[in-house]
Amino acid sequence: MTVTIDMGTGAGGAPALMELEELLATRLLVQGNSGSGKSHLLRRLLEGAAPWVQQIVVDPEGDFVTLSDRYGHSVVEGADYSEAEIRRIAARIREHRVSAVLSLEGLDAEAQMRCAAAFLMALFDAPRDHWYPALVVVDEAQLFAPAVAGEVADDARRASLGAMTNLMCRGRKRGLAGVIATQRLAKLAKNVAAEASNFLMGRTFLDIDMARAADLLGMERRQAEQIRDLERGQFLALGPALCRRPLSIRIGPVETSARTSSPKLLDMPAAPTGEDAQMLLFAAAPVEPRPATPAPPPPPPASADDLIREIARPLPMSSLLDRPQVSGAEREKIISTVLGEIVAEPDSAYRSPAVLFQDFGVRCRMHGLADTGHDLARFRSRLSMARAGLTGGIADDARFAPAAEIARGLEEGMQGIYLLLARAALDGAPCPDDAEIAAVYGTHSLGRVRRLLAYLQTQGLLAIHTDMRGDRRIGLPALGWITAAAAPTTTGE
């Protein structure tokens, strides 16, 4: 399954498409001077990806908070909370897969670095069960990963740089796909920039920035001059999620807008001159009357607990996709179909359940089902049954219920093995070989499969019989079922 985002137009007016799954695996770096259209590009990307993947934005100027109006992003005002509260909120954002914008507006540079560091490290340190795929967009990344020490405290700079390095270097295995934007490549730490495999380079004028951009794009230095001539909203693109050779693309329009915009020229008013101007400039300040009643104080910011409760509230995806609800039978049919598609892919057995859960949600929405009604725990249970060939039919057979009940009490990785053997035993089918069991468990090691079967036998869950021909039968003592004989795989580790 491929999900693409239309970023605008490329050569000859052809659509410039970005593969979302490839982007999640390879990360993105955007560079361009102020006014080149970086924020517009990021907004186009976020709007296109909103229905498909969780998004987390670190926003130093508060420009992206308007995404909440249309796409339901939760807004976290960094200035209103302590570092401990920021870490708690970030952990809940990962746990509940809520798209969010961390607005750092109103904080000085050092406070922004401390807040962003605490937030990003909490995302990075989330438990393995919460490693869902997410786009982590950091605007003005040179503020948080500076190439050289500045006027901020060393501990704040080290914490922020460490968090950004973890995001770009080690975040992929935790489901975090870094998308960073910067005005100056020369001001961005090289070890952070070097981890991106996709690049969108906008207009820049300084030789040092053009040289670094040309190096990243694989262009000769003399070709770098064209970066000076790029128009606003025009970028040179390169990377596996975009194109294999440098390509000029123009970013398309967006549906939301920032709270601030570029200045526009207006007609000058008729200004006073001479003595009239002197009177206006230097007249005594009028005495303002004291109000009869003081103005009410502004409402206090939401407490961290209130914000966390808001994050934990499930966001209906139907509001994003505007699709009608389906009946219970149709829902189950779609879920069974999607599970069958997932387990049919050759590499699905070796991908983490959190990544497959994201894939499951995207596929269901593409089939017209906005709300699957499955959390990660329920999905894991259904995935174990699907890997054992139980996407429907026999899974609903009342005779199979005792096997399903026993499997629920086992560790997650062993549920699929038990169900696979139970299905073969109930059907009187030949005993699955080691390779088939390995695919259900999610390993290439046949030796590990044999050790797992031996462990289940010591726990009294299986009884393995091998006859003189070397054929194997596996019984399930608690159920009184046994498979037919078949030769196990005897090679490979």
Question: What descriptive keywords fit this protein?
Answer:
single chain; 493 residues; alpha/beta; Rossmann fold; Arc Repressor Mutant, subunit A; 11-stranded mixed beta sheet; 18 helices
Side-by-side strand order of the widest sheet: 2-1-11-10-9-3-8-7-4-6-5
CATH topology label of one domain: Rossmann fold
Shape descriptor reads elongated
Which stretches are low in confidence, meaning pLDDT under 50 for 5 or more residues running?
317-321
Mean pLDDT: 82
CATH top-level class of one domain: Alpha Beta
Given the structure, what is the number of helices?
18
SS elements, strand count:
14
User: Any idea what the CATH architecture of one domain is?
Assistant: 3-Layer(aba) Sandwich
Cα end-to-end separation? 31 Å
- The proportion of residues in beta strands is 5-15%
Gyration radius, rounded:
29 Å
- Estimated helix fraction: 25-40%
**How would you classify the helix and strand content by structural class?**
alpha/beta
- Determine the CATH superfamily of one domain: P-loop containing nucleotide triphosphate hydrolases
- Report the major sheet: 11 strands, mixed
Layout of secondary structure:
Blueprint: E1 4-9, E2 15-19, H1 20-26, E3 28-31, H2 38-49, E4 54-59, H3 67-71, E5 74-77, H4 83-96, E6 100-103, H5 109-124, E7 134-138, H6 154-170, E8 176-182, H7 190-193, E9 198-201, H8 207-217, E10 234-239, E11 243-251, H9 274-282, H10 304-312, H11 318-321, H12 328-344, H13 353-366, H14 376-387, H15 401-408, H16 412-427, H17 434-441, H18 446-458, E12 463-466, E13 472-476, E14 481-482
Parallel strand pairs: 3-8, 3-9, 4-6, 4-7, 5-6, 7-8
Antiparallel strand pairs: 1-2, 1-11, 9-10, 10-11, 12-13, 13-14
Helix pairs in contact: 4-5, 4-10, 5-6, 12-13, 12-14, 14-16, 15-16, 17-18
